[in-house]
Every structure is written in C-alpha cells, then in structure tokens.
Amino acid sequence: MAEPIRSQWPNRPFTKEPESLRGLDPQERQLRQFKDPSREWHRRFSEAWGTFLLVLVAAGTIMVGARSSEMSPAVAAVGPGLIVMVVIYFMGAVGGAHLNPAVTYAFALRGNFPWPRVPGYIGAQFVGGVAAILFLRALLGDVGDLGATKPEGLSDWQALALESVLTVGLVNTILGTASGARNVGANGAIAVGAYIAVAGLWAGPLTGASMNPARSLAPDLVRADFAKTYIYILGPLLGASIGVAFEWILKGPPTREGSIAAQGDAEDKPDL
C-alpha cells in the first residue's frame, strides 16, 4: 500500500505516485493505471450510471410523449445524442463512456480494449439500462411500451439492415475520433453526440435508431416481449463488426490514443 503523505489541502490526504508510474509519459501512465484491478469497479460503475442516464432519456422521451402531446419527435430524436455528449464530457475519463455493448465490442475487436474486461462492461451497461426502465415504470407507469424500440413501416430484415448501417456510422465516428490525440475524450463527445442526434432525426421514426443492444433489450426484458429484440442485438453487432473493418481500411492498425479513449484516462488526484 502506498505511503500516505501530507497534502497542502487540510484533511484531504493523498498517496504517493507508485514507483512504477514515475517518469512515464502521461499516455503510458494512463494505460498502466488501467491494468490496476482496484480501479475496475469505478469503470463499471461509470458504465452502469452512464447507461442509466442514456436509457432514462431515450426511453423516457417516448414514455412522456405517450402521456403528453407536448413532446415533439425532434426532442425524442435529439435527446439521446445530447445526453451521450454530456456523459462523455463528465465521465468519459473514468472508463471511456462506452454506454453500449456494440461500442465495447467494437473497441475490443479493434484491439483498443482487453477482451477479458468486455463481460464486466457489458454487464454493467445492461444493469444500468434495466434500472432506468424500472425507474421510469415506477414513475410513469406502463405507458409507451416502456420506451421500446420497434420497426415502423419496415420488415424485420429491413429494420435489421438499417440498424446495422446506423451502427457502422456510429462506430466509425467513435473509432475515428479516438484515433488521434486531439480527438480523445471530450472533443469526440461533440462528434458522437451529433451523430446520434442526426441518426435519430431521420431514422428514429423507422426503427427508433437504437444502435444499442442495452437500450433496446432493457424495456423488452422488463415488459417480457422479445418478438423484435433480435433486430436490435444482431443489427448493432453486425454494424460494429463492419465499422471496425472500415476503420482498418481507413486508418490501419489501432493507436495508443484509441486505447486510452476506450479505457479511460482518470488519475487519482486530490479534490480541489
């Protein structure tokens, strides 16, 4: 255990930097910190909390719209993009703010994220999503199919194809902004949030523009209706695979900056 030292802030002690991290450049220090298992629960909590907020907004706008005509379709489309942008800004440094099993899968497939940690991230995302739906049901009741995503005017295969294509664009946006030092973390939040908002504006009326298995499975699980769930699991996973392939074509092998964006770059610092 690191030896505590005195801080210039009263009653706010911090610990010495471990010997193994001294003299390393910031990126290498961040990657080594990510290997510290004692930090993993912070990252999983951030994924659960971030996904809770995403599903709260994405499903909540649909449920509120079912109760009130004051909710416009544009709000339902743009809301998820805005909350993702906010979460990346305030919590992306903790664990990467994936908030989506397809994104975690894409980062791992790309080589930016360790496969052994994928189940923990995805489990946390599903827990956060289900918790959000349970909260909304307790608050608003069983309205709007609990914010479920369903094809409208499309066959199942058409909806699956659309969700796949939407996810390709999302994954390319995320991996693309994570591949350069200036696009890591908060700067990428604007691009990712904007993409989700634009996708929601035009594709929301057709499939819900989910691109996220946790967002779609959560209401289906709570209402025990899985008739269309496969569309929103297979579609994003297929799209994520294609998106990773496109990223290799566009930019080649993965980068260290992409690994930092995928894994988070939080450091232990004293509170100010």
Number of strands: 2
What characteristic shape results from the CA principal axes? Answer: globular
Alpha carbon gyration radius: 19 Å
CATH topology: Glycerol uptake facilitator protein
- Briefly note the structural class of the backbone: mainly alpha
Amino-to-carboxy terminus distance:
24 Å
SSE string, helix = H, strand = E? EEHHHHHHHHHH
Give the biggest sheet: 2 strands, antiparallel
Mean pLDDT reading: 86
CATH superfamily: Glycerol uptake facilitator protein
What is the CATH architecture annotation?
Up-down Bundle
Report the total helices. Answer: 10
Spatial strand arrangement across the major sheet = 1-2
SSE arrangement:
Blueprint: E1 4-5, E2 14-15, H1 26-34, H2 40-67, H3 73-95, H4 101-110, H5 118-140, H6 156-177, H7 186-207, H8 213-223, H9 229-251, H10 256-263
Antiparallel strand pairs: 1-2
Helix pairs in contact: 1-10, 2-3, 2-5, 2-8, 3-7, 4-5, 4-6, 4-9, 5-8, 6-7, 6-9, 8-9
